[in-house]
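Worked example

This section walks through a single chain of length 274. The input is the sequence exactly as stored; nothing has been trimmed or padded.
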Amino acid sequence: MSRFASCSLGERRFAALVEGDEALPLRHAEELGAATPSEVLANPQLTGERIPLADVTLRPVVPRPGKIICVGLNYRAHVEEGVFDLPEYPALFPKFADTLVAAGAPIALPPESEAVDYEAELAFVIGRDVRRVSGEEALAAVGGYTIANDVSMRDYQYKSHQWLAGKAWARSTPLGPFLVTPDEVGDPHALDISLELNGERMQEANTRLFIFDIPTIVATISEFTPLRPGDVVLTGTPSGVGYRRDPKVLLRDGDRLVVEIAGVGRLENTVAAE
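Given that input, the structure is written out below as tokens.
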């Protein structure tokens, strides 16, 4: 499996090819992102070092993306468990780089919100410059896939018709642990996705249930803004979110979250009060 990571070791930062339990640093790349488009990942130039993964600290898989764009409603069952109509056009909203946290790092539980919720999501990273693309060309723009947990502050999300205030809290969005290349993932529209909270399965679905597939998402976004290497796109969450349960299941200090996506990996984080 072609897996890549953004790592740190002491004060050193580097992008790495991951082989087994070792990190193989890339030359001239301190992180995945704008400097590691698809052509670089297809033929990575390595330093020759082999560093045990246990010795490095993982960073968000793309620590400083130029854009983070999220799809809000992309599974019919999630739409139906809420108060929304089935969308005819993707519901999109942005995040910022400082929302991201690494695999294994704590998710910040802010004191202001009383309704913090989880959202398992497949994410993809753009691998080449594109604008106004569609179909196969849109899918070919994807440089790799990873896992996200779009932790949401529901009370702030619903303060207005714009979701930004509930979706962009600092250190709220785990992204990682690895970037997996498309040739290894296979069909991104046939992946099992699940989330467990403290060992209990809360979300379970398959990406074949997307309302908007990945070419449609890329086409929609690239119509109004250029997409560039390192841009991150979250594809939406399935049903089972805590806020729509009766009674509600909201995140608390000390909770443990695990998101798994077939062919992509496993993302684990704990929740820690600020």
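What to look for: The chain has a mean pLDDT of 97.
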